[in-house]
Write a structure and sequence with these properties.
Layout lengths: L2 H13 L1 H27 L8 E5 L12 E21 L8 E7 L3 E11 L2 E10 L5 E5 L6 E5 L1 H7 L2 E28 L10
Antiparallel strand pairs: 1-2, 2-8, 3-8, 4-7, 4-8, 5-6, 5-8
């Protein structure tokens, strides 16, 4: 094997400045990516459910020099569990719904409402949710037996804490039965004992 035939083109390739610049740029990109990934790998932490989670509120102290860090505890609370039955379903245009009130407190982060329906002939349930003011804040009205609602922290903040009411509308079907559950996820400040914070 003629070694010179192999090495000569290779050395000529490295003598080309454009190729050297490309190699240098490629190595630089690899180094930057490695540094970036190592930084985020150290920053990411797995937080178990129910533990205190440090959250930067974006505020500042009286000197406006350091951010205020508040620890929050994630709390899950089942707020609704009910069931019902209706012989014949029909649209409740007059507002005659099956109503299920429940309470949502301060620091609510997410609200989940699940309605599971069944029936002998084409069951169709609709679900409406009223806030503490009595106004509708969410709805789910597909042509299905089961419906689901989710409210995030922004929606819950606009509605406010208090008594919510889930309205079940047996829209159509025969021999209808349903069950409804509700769960609230709270992000409670750690300094609030028992979920109750000082005014």
């Amino acid at each position: 094997m003629d070694i010179e035939m192999i090495t000569k083109p290779l050395l000529a390739w490295f003598d080309n400045r454009k190729n050297l610049y490309g190699i240098a740029a490629f190595i630089g990109i690899i180094v930057l990516l490695a540094m970036d990934f190592s930084y985020y790998a150290e920053a990411i932490e797995t937080v178990p459910f129910g533990s205190a989670v440090p959250v930067d509120t974006g505020g500042a102290d009286t000197n406006d020099t350091e951010p205020i860090i508040t620890n929050w505890t994630v709390v899950k609370e089942d707020v609704l569990s009910a069931s019902g039955s209706v012989a014949i379903g029909r649209p409740n245009s007059d507002g005659d719904y099956q109503e299920h009130p429940f309470e949502v407190g301060d620091y609510a982060f997410t609200l989940y409402i699940n309605l599971t329906g069944d029936g002998a002939v084409r069951p169709d349930f609709d679900l409406y949710l009223l806030g503490p003011s009595g106004k509708q804040v969410a709805s789910a009205a597909s042509a299905e037996a089961s419906e689901h609602l989710v409210m995030d922290s922004k929606d819950l903040g606009r509605a406010g804490a208090g008594t919510f009411t889930a309205q079940v509308d047996p829209y159509s079907g025969v021999g209808l039965e349903y069950s409804i559950t509700g769960t609230v996820i709270y992000h409670v400040p750690e300094e609030c004992e028992g979920g109750v914070c000082p005014a």
